[in-house]
Amino acid sequence: MIRKLIQGAELYNKELNSKYSITAAQLNCLLALYENGPLPLSKIAKHMMVRSSTVTGVIDRLERKALVTRERNSPDRRVIIIQLTANGKKMAKVAPPPIQQRVYDGLQQLSIKKRDQIILSLATLTKMLDVQDLEVM
Prior knowledge:
The chain has about 140 residues and is mainly alpha-helical. The protein is built from 7 helices and 3 strands, in the order H-H-E-H-H-E-E-H-H-H. The protein has 2 domains: about 1-95, Winged helix-like DNA-binding domain superfamily/Winged helix DNA-binding domain (Arc Repressor Mutant, subunit A); about 95-135. The two termini are about 25 Å apart.
């Protein structure tokens, strides 16, 4: 079962890469900007639930693809605002929803009892894998 979940995520990533030439992390970044407007790196990281250092690499790659730009328009020169380009906006509009959205939508169709069962099962799995205490942003 876990193997199927991992394979599903891998297939999703391959589809994104082959059809849109972006990764899931890049898509999540584009969508954060599309839904919230121009943002500093730290805010993008919060929306993506990752560290700012991770977002820096994602932004570098999106900038090379001309999907985002970095702008300094704050009195504080350390603050860099990331903004979608016209191509970035187009990509955000046409790309498929993130895989997390598919899971969320599927869970919403289940009864509360069934969702609670899934949550309990996932909690048990994380304990088995000893990952319940990992820092997730």
